[in-house]
């Protein structure tokens, strides 16, 4: 009887293993789109920025314009380099507050919206890439991913080699973010560190 139970257990384990492999084989590798210099993030002149702290509004977001690599391409995840401000001296993380992402078409029509607590994605002592999975969303041509930090998690900013595809989404318009840094009396080219992933 013990041998039959062991055999049944091994058969069940084998079936589970085959199911996991089959599921992995069905999921094609995602193509990642970036609109920054393409350098490794650890090699970038990187800082963090908050539209909420700069403008004092929850309805202003950091946006990146992407182009779908083919017709009917499906966006399945948005990745943002962000930081939720871990306090090293007290070794505490901030309380949960909401961030939000939107996906908009080339005419800025809303295609998708999602909000969640920032600590689900950016809980880290120094910043990390937070991945937000979304239901497969078919996009063609240009589209925008908008991240609303809402003062909950600063977004990663690359301060050189601007791709020209980063914007502040304010009042229904896409505005180049260079004007955000006018206090230095110099034009600072920047890229928001947002990725779009799909297939």
**H and E order:** HEEHEEEEHEEEEEEE
Number of helices: 3
Please state the oligomeric state of the protein chains shown.
single chain
Write down the overall geometry. globular
Assigned CATH architecture:
Sandwich
Highest-level CATH class: Mainly Beta
Mean pLDDT: 84
Which regions are unreliable across 5 or more consecutive residues at pLDDT < 50? 5-25
Main sheet characteristics: 7 strands, antiparallel
Q: Strand percentage, roughly?
A: 35-45%
What percentage of residues falls in helices of 4 or more residues? 10-25%
Q: Report the span from N to C terminus.
A: 49 Å
Structure summary:
This protein has 3 helices and 13 strands, in the order H-E-E-H-E-E-E-E-H-E-E-E-E-E-E-E. The relative contact order is 0.26.
Tell me about this structure:
With 199 residues, the protein is an alpha+beta fold. It has a single domain, classed as Jelly Rolls (Sandwich). Helices cover 17% and strands 41% of the residues. It contains three helices and 13 strands, in the order H-E-E-H-E-E-E-E-H-E-E-E-E-E-E-E. The strands form two sheets. Strands 1, 2, 4, 7, 9, 12 and 13 form a seven-stranded antiparallel β-sheet that branches. It has a six-stranded antiparallel β-sheet with strand order 6-5-8-3-10-11. The radius of gyration is 21 Å and the shape is globular.
Features:
single chain; 199 residues; alpha+beta; Jelly Rolls; six-stranded antiparallel beta sheet; 41% strand
Secondary structure elements and pairings:
Blueprint: H1 2-26, E1 31-34, E2 46-49, H2 51-55, E3 61-67, E4 73-83, E5 98-105, E6 110-117, H3 119-122, E7 128-139, E8 142-148, E9 154-158, E10 166-170, E11 173-175, E12 191-192, E13 194-198
Antiparallel strand pairs: 1-13, 2-9, 3-8, 3-10, 4-7, 4-9, 4-13, 5-6, 5-8, 9-12, 10-11
């Amino acid at each position: 009887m013990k041998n039959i139970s062991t055999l049944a257990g091994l058969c069940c384990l084998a079936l589970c293993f085959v199911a996991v492999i089959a599921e992995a084989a069905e999921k094609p590798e995602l193509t990642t789109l970036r609109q920054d210099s393409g350098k490794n993030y650890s090699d970038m002149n990187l800082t963090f920025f908050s539209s909420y702290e700069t403008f004092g509004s929850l309805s202003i977001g950091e946006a990146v314009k992407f182009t779908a690599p083919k017709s009917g391409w499906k966006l399945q995840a948005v990745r943002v380099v962000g930081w939720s401000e871990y306090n090293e001296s007290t070794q505490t993380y901030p309380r949960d507050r909401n961030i939000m992402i939107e996906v908009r078409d080339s005419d800025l029509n809303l295609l998708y919206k999602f909000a969640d607590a920032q600590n689900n994605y950016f809980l880290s002592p120094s910043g990390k890439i937070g991945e937000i999975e979304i239901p497969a969303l078919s996009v063609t041509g240009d589209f925008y991913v908008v991240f609303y930090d809402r003062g909950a998690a600063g977004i990663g900013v690359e301060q050189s080699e601007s791709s020209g595809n980063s914007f502040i989404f304010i009042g229904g318009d896409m505005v180049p973010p260079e004007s955000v840094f006018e206090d230095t009396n110099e034009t600072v080219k920047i890229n928001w560190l947002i990725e779009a992933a799909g297939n």
